[in-house]
DNA sequence: AAACTTAGTGTAAAAAATACACTTACTAAA
DNA sequence: TTTAGTAAGTGTATTTTTTACACTAAGTTT
């Protein structure tokens, strides 16, 4: 039956941020190649998948995250839906769509999430929708599939907003961390230097960051006090 | 062909805020009744519609707004997508779905927008998806269809955030307005009293609000200076 | 013991936010 | 034409928040 309404595919895409102590990274997947293109170098994309029957958006985002990282209970935040029909019309993406989508010409709207994970907990591996996964430094993100560069850009903006308000970001750190480690992370996310004393003052005001009676070990200088994050 | 992926319906819902000089209002529609239910009092809903073939999300939101109000170029902001399958499973909504949707059991995700319009420019009237439209004061919103009460709640939160930063809201006012009028509006949106002198100071700092050489007319007291809003 | 490295700390100045009360300009009623 | 009523318009002092800034302490390595 013909209809004026679109048979729309809905997908969820997930911008997964990770922190290696020095740089902000993003988890990308290598798209599986269409048979005719197996000889080409794979295109990178942010992980995502179509939403399943009777699956909620948050559930889909969690499923993708879990399939890729085996992690559950991770910080996940929906930030925007992208639905311009042109987003799946670019030439570069046609082969992939024809090879892997039941309806390659369908209008696809995607609901974008970002999440924060500790890089050391993730062992990137292949999954049902990725032939390979890898961490890429924020500053080295290449041209990605569809409008994924734009989606990352929006995700980063939102992350920065939240970080400016000091409401999130601690999820990226190991269980126990020093104030200097938080500061490095914030500086990487915001891409600017922060004043040490003022930064410490502001973090110590948060009652979600609690001081431990422990010191950093294994460093070749004065060890810092350790703190932990207790989400409120 | 059976598929593990959902045949999902995508709709756009629009929380349309209006200001009558005293209260914040929301434009609601009376849902058309299923034939078997024409005798029942109509259920109210926020305006929305399924996204059309090859239509972008912003386009759909604008289409809905225009069909309902005849207005174009209105402030419109996407704020969240709602996609829990249970949102279209409530008993109260089944008759309507069966009567007006090709696939009443489909999972429907909706992308929600809010917009700000001048109430005096709107002449609510029937449209293709509404048998009637009406303004309802924010504080008197009844039980609505689907999860629309929740959507309004989220829209109001977002509006408040933006208003606290003084970045929006002026779209609700007539072309020329006094500082006191802005203040009343802000007080209604934020649901709290503001200090007159401090409020004026803060508004006068904005270079999007420009003073005119004109005074209010037709009031029975000292007339206020008029200002206009020039979006940057 | 000396050199190196990062941790850790306080104060003063500037900027932003808040609290607060009287005079002015106009209309309507006496 | 005076009086009463109504909202407009205005400045300062106080508190809070934000910023700028430099040295000592605790550990490790040579």
Briefly say what this structure is.
Two copies of one chain form a homodimer. Chain A has 232 residues and is an alpha+beta fold.
Structure description:
The structure is a homodimer of 232-residue chains. The first copy, chain A, is α+β, with helices and mostly antiparallel strands and 232 residues long. The first copy, chain A, has helices spanning 57-69, 94-100, 148-164, 179-190, 196-205; strands at residues 9-19, 24-30, 44-45, 48-50, 75-82, 108-118, 132-137, 176-177, 209-215, 225-229. In chain A, strand 1 and strand 2 (24-30) form a beta hairpin. Chain A contains five helices and ten strands. In chain A, the strands form two sheets. In chain A, strands 1, 2, 3, 4, 5, 6 and 7 form a seven-stranded mixed sheet that branches. A three-stranded antiparallel sheet of chain A has the order 8-10-9. Chain A has two domains: 9-164, Nucleoside Triphosphate Pyrophosphohydrolase (Alpha-Beta Complex), CATH 3.90.79.10; 174-229, Winged helix-like DNA-binding domain superfamily/Winged helix DNA-binding domain (Arc Repressor Mutant, subunit A), CATH 1.10.10.10. The model of chain A has no long low-confidence stretch (mean pLDDT 93). At the A-B interface, strand 5 of A face strand 5 of B. The structure holds a DNA duplex (30 and 30 nucleotides).
């Amino acid at each position: 039956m013909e209809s004026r309404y679109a048979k729309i595919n809905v997908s969820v895409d997930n911008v997964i941020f990770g922190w290696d102590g020095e740089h902000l990274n993003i988890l990308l997947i290598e798209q599986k190649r269409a048979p005719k293109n197996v000889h080409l170098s794979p295109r990178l994309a942010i992980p995502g998948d179509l939403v399943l029957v009777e699956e909620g958006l948050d559930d889909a985002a969690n499923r993708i995250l879990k399939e890729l990282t085996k992690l559950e209970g991770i910080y996940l935040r929906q930030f925007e839906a992208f639905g311009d029909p042109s987003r799946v019309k670019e030439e570069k993406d046609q082969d992939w769509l024809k090879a892997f989508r039941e309806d390659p010409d369908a209008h696809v709207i995607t609901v974008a999430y970002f999440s924060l994970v500790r890089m050391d907990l993730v062992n990137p591996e292949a999954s049902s929708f990725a032939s390979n996964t890898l961490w890429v430094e924020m500053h080295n993100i290449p041209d990605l599939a569809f409008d994924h560069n734009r989606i990352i850009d929006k995700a980063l903006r939102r992350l920065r907003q939240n970080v400016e308000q000091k409401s999130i970001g601690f999820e990226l750190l190991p269980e126990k961390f020093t104030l200097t480690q938080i500061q490095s992370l914030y500086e990487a996310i915001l891409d600017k230097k922060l004043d040490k004393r003022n930064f410490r003052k502001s973090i110590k005001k948060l009652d979600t960051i609690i001081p431990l009676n422990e010191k950093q070990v294994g460093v070749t200088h004065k060890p810092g006090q350790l703190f932990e994050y207790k989400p409120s």
